[in-house]
Amino acid sequence: MTNSTALLPEAEFVAQFHAIGKERYHHKHPFHLLMHEGKLTRGQLQAWALNRYTYQSFIPIKDAAILARSEDPAFRLAWRKRIIDHDGDGTRPGGIEKWLKLVEATGLSREQAIRGEGILPATRYAVDAYVDFVRSRTHLEAVASSLTELFSKDLIVLRVDRLREHYPWLSSGLDYFQGRLTQAPEDATFALAWVVKHARTREEQDLALAALRAKCDILWAMLDALHFAYVTPGWPPPGAFRPAAKDS
Amino acid sequence: MTNSTALLPEAEFVAQFHAIGKERYHHKHPFHLLMHEGKLTRGQLQAWALNRYTYQSFIPIKDAAILARSEDPAFRLAWRKRIIDHDGDGTRPGGIEKWLKLVEATGLSREQAIRGEGILPATRYAVDAYVDFVRSRTHLEAVASSLTELFSKDLIVLRVDRLREHYPWLSSGLDYFQGRLTQAPEDATFALAWVVKHARTREEQDLALAALRAKCDILWAMLDALHFAYVTPGWPPPGAFRPAAKDS
Asked: What interface predicted TM-score (ipTM) does this complex get?
């Protein structure tokens, strides 16, 4: 059992993913804690919605990059769902459109989000790091990096509850989270089963676990940058969004 | 004169690069101001040296990427100097080796820097963004992004003076800066002349100016991340370097 090169039993492998989430997922980030305690200003929520839009808008691009790596039509069919979830089907709005509604509910225009005006450079670097990760690492690591979705449902349930309570003026913008309550767990179930099946050596298992850690780092770094620019006695970098005085 | 599509006269084009540096170069970053006032702890200087090592270690990689884009042997010959400056010539140490001496002068081991242990994820994302920029943008933009070197001499002169004054225990690690005092201005003179000559339309001039802004963003974002993790009431992200209690 002390052999660090032996394949982990499935239950242990899965438990290690959950342990990473417990330690590193961004549900623990102080920016989210302030959000859930109702302590963020409108300006801070605007900065969050605006920067997170950049992340949301790249989700279908990163999923298409993962889809493009698979020669298995069954995998591609399952993964394709994610692109539809975010881009929509041409009739019903997808997650990106719903996030724009959230941006509008904060009082910013959708155009500002789409133009990326005032986005923190650090947000762009983190998003680019994610897209680059799924393109350049192994297919297994790319899929494993999506496993933050194992933890997103609990965070979203709490968030929607607290946003409604503390920031009722945001209520018209919460459709995105409603959709994710069912989408994310479905996606995570598929991805976890796939990773468990395809990590055939201990080295591959370790790479898959490291991929989840790397993804947690990306989500955490985006909130660090937001926190520094808009919460602590830090500062938005040159050129970044600055809340109107009345919203700060 | 109000025609925003007319080619800028050379003097005006050059002046705009200097205006960008004045506004956005990281000499104005509060982390540097604290450094120059002698207000950083040993732990904070360790974090700076460690994270900045990641940046330094990628400089020859980014310069090789720029060199690889040119079909002009004269350009490649001039640019090759930069790789030698940082990697050394096999006999005399280059900038990377000298930076490791700085890391050691702070009290950390060179091995820790080389392994990248405890580096802020945000540092890696910014460095990767720089390498990606010079690979994926036009050759003109890639060269223009190096023009922060127009401003580095003044910062280095001040820094060396203040490091010697406030942190005399660092003195054995300052060779890097000595070398850069002559290298950076030579490199900047070549790069600026090349950019002036090769930006043949106003659109290209604007792209070159934007490239310098993008590079300033990268340098600034690395210091923001350091400042948040190690100076303000922020926190190092999970897994990042934490100074020993005695050094903080």
From this structure: 0.87
**CA–CA dist A222, B190 (Å, integer):** 37
**Mutant choice from A133, A224, A235, A241 vs B, greatest count of B C-beta within 10 A:** A224
CB proximity under 8 Å: B 4-43 to A? 23-24, 30
**Mutation for testing the A interface, residue in B224, B231, B232, B241 having most A CBs under 10 Å:** B224
Distance CA(A116)–CA(B126), nearest Å, equals 18
Q: Is the dihedral of CA B228, B230, B235, B236 positive or negative?
A: positive
Residue A3: the pLDDT is: 60
Q: What is the topology classification, in CATH, of domain B10-232?
A: Heme Oxygenase; Chain A (1.20.910)
Whether B213 and B146 have beta carbons less than 8 Å apart is answered as no
Both tokens of residue B66?
Answer: 């720029």
Which pLDDT value is given to residue B1?
Answer: 46
Residue A174, token pair as written in the block: 């919460």
Q: Is B237 on the interface with A (CB under 8 A)?
A: yes
- What integer pLDDT is reported at residue A4 of this predicted model? 75
Q: pTM of the full predicted structure?
A: 0.91
Of A129, A232, A235, the CB nearest to B234: A232
CATH 1.10.760.10 assigned to domain A10-236? The reply is no
Measured CA to CA in angstroms, residue A82 lies from A69, A96, A200, B73 at distances of 15, 12, 25, 48
CA separation, residue A237 to residues A240, B31, B127 (Å): 6, 13, 17
Establish how many alpha carbons lie within 13 A of residue B192's alpha carbon, considering only the half-sphere containing its beta carbon.
Answer: 19
Domain boundaries, chain A: 10-236
pLDDT tens per residue across span A73-121: 999 999 999 999 999 999 999 999 999 999 999 999 999 999 998 999 9
Is pLDDT above 50 for B210? yes
- pLDDT per position as a tens digit, B46-95: 999 999 999 999 999 999 999 999 999 999 999 999 999 999 999 999 99
- Look at the block and give the residue holding tokens 């310098």: B212
